[in-house]
Design goal:
The protein has helices spanning 76-81, 83-91; strands at residues 7-11, 15-19, 21-27, 31-36, 39-54, 59-72. With 92 residues, the protein is an alpha+beta fold. 22% of the residues are buried.
């Protein structure tokens, strides 16, 4: 049976660590789109970069100014297609 545990740690909105990542779908300095064991996640911010990635251990760490984190059980294409409006809705 697949392990559906996930851990997300956000320190001072400048460092995010996630356990439970399956795949990095897409990333830029403004957003990171991830497939996780519980669905899809989008990290939105400024000056983002992946400072640690271990897909065997299902771990990722992202540094930069983190403005929003969003979750979806829909496919990753849905997040990429509607990413900016998705984040704007989160920040309202």
């Amino acid at each position: 049976m697949e392990d559906l545990k996930q851990q997300l740690v956000l320190n001072d909105r400048h460092y995010l660590r996630l356990i439970g990542v399956d795949k990095v779908e897409d990333f830029t300095s403004e957003q990171v789109n991830l497939a996780t064991n519980l669905g899809f996640m989008q990290i939105h911010g400024e000056g983002l970069h992946i400072c640690h990635l271990n897909l065997e251990g299902k771990e990722i760490a992202v540094e930069g100014k983190i403005n929003a984190v969003g979750f979806s059980t829909r496919g990753g294409e849905e997040i990429k297609k509607h990413g900016k409006s998705f984040v704007r809705r989160l920040l309202k």
